[in-house]
């Protein structure tokens, strides 16, 4: 029983990281109706930037906030320079752009920083908080940061004029333009927020998986599974899906073997697409023909 409790709690901590990435995927999906396959590589590159800043002597939390800001700006620039010219292009062209971004970020990171695995410092102490024996201090801290981030995003999108404008631009751009919302810039800000959220997820997972150019491949797979499970058009459903995937990954890894951990995500993706494409909390769109 102790082992099960430990794996569930540890899975919730890991699931918080998947939830953050799933939320970033959903935010871009709502804006473009495409999956950003480069989301993980963008987060990885931002994490390398954080590592370089810490190697230069900058304190962790200063690095954390500076990296988040830089990632936000980079996300806005990518949307304006790379994505905007192909927004009306065929789906295959947009997917090709996303895959191109993935390869570019991965290759440039390897070229600049090398492919050697690097340790990434955790801001939390080595000793578990409150003397508990179920979760490490990093697991508790990363889950706390994830929950604070999600709460801030909830308040932002629900109660601030800018957040409401961004929601309207993503959900119904035509109506948003009619009431004076600058849809183009709202979508760019959405890309910036998604990039910032991905950077935070990368900095939280790097102390666990270590830092290398392919570190976010598995994380993106689990995040994608969580987003599909919860609903690719429902941000909070995707968050819940990310937590569920994190728990399932840990429990399956212990009781069925680590070889099946990635299989869990793939089974979830295929199962959801076949049985309930809208996800657990997604909307089913019905149109009259």
Structure description:
The protein is mostly helical and 289 residues long. The protein has a single domain (2-275), classed as Orthogonal Bundle (ABC transporter involved in vitamin B12 uptake, BtuC), CATH 1.10.3470. It is built from 11 helices and no strands. The chain has helices at 2-32, 39-55, 60-83, 91-113, 137-159, 161-171, 173-178, 183-209, 217-230, 235-255, 261-275. Helix 2 runs antiparallel to helix 3, helix 3 (60-83) crosses helix 8 (183-209) and helix 10 (235-255) packs across helix 11. It is globular and about 55 Å long. Belongs to the binding-protein-dependent transport system permease family. LivHM subfamily. Keywords: Amino-acid transport, Cell membrane, Membrane, Transmembrane, Transmembrane helix, Transport.
* CATH 2nd-level architecture: Orthogonal Bundle
Tell me about the largest β-sheet.
none
The Rg value, from CA coordinates, equals 19 Å
Total beta-strand segments: 0
The H-and-E topology, N to C, reads as HHHHHHHHHHH
Mean pLDDT value: 85
Helix and strand content put the structural class at: mainly alpha
Q: Residue ranges: pLDDT <50 for 5 or more in a row?
A: none
Q: Globular, elongated, flat, extended or rod-shaped: what is the shape?
A: globular
Q: Mind telling me the CATH class?
A: Mainly Alpha
The portion of residues forming beta strands comes to under 5%
The fold-level CATH name is: ABC transporter involved in vitamin B12 uptake, BtuC
How many DSSP helices? 11
Helix content: over 70%
Distance between the termini: 54 Å
Question: In total, how many domains does the architecture comprise?
Answer: 1
């Amino acid at each position: 029983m102790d082992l099960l409790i430990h794996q569930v709690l540890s899975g919730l901590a890991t699931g918080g990281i998947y939830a953050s990435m799933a939320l970033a995927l959903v935010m871009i999906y709502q804006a473009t109706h495409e999956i950003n396959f480069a989301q993980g590589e963008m987060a990885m590159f931002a994490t390398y930037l954080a590592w370089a800043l810490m190697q230069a002597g900058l304190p962790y939390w200063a690095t954390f906030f500076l990296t988040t800001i830089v990632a936000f700006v980079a996300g806005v620039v990518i949307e304006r320079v790379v994505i905007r010219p192909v927004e009306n292009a065929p789906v295959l062209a947009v997917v090709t752009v996303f895959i191109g971004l993935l390869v570019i970020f991965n290759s440039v990171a390897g070229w600049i920083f090398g492919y050697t695995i690097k340790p990434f410092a955790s801001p939390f102490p080595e000793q578990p908080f409150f003397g508990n024996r179920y979760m490490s201090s990093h697991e508790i801290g990363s889950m706390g940061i994830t929950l604070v981030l999600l709460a801030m995003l909830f308040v932002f999108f629900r109660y601030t004029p800018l957040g409401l404008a961004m929601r309207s631009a993503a959900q119904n751009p035509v109506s948003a333009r009619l009431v004076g919302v600058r849809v183009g810039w709202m979508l760019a800000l959405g890309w910036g927020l998604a990039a910032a959220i991905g950077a935070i997820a990368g900095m939280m997972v790097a102390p666990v998986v270590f830092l290398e150019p392919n570190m976010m491949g598995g994380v993106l797979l689990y995040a994608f599974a969580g987003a599909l499970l919860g609903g690719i058009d429902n941000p909070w459903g995707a968050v819940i899906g990310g937590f569920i995937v994190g728990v399932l990954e840990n429990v399956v890894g212990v009781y069925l073997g680590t070889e099946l951990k990635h299989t869990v995500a793939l089974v979830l993706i295929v199962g959801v697409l076949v049985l309930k494409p809208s996800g657990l909390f997604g909307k089913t769109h019905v149109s009259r023909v």
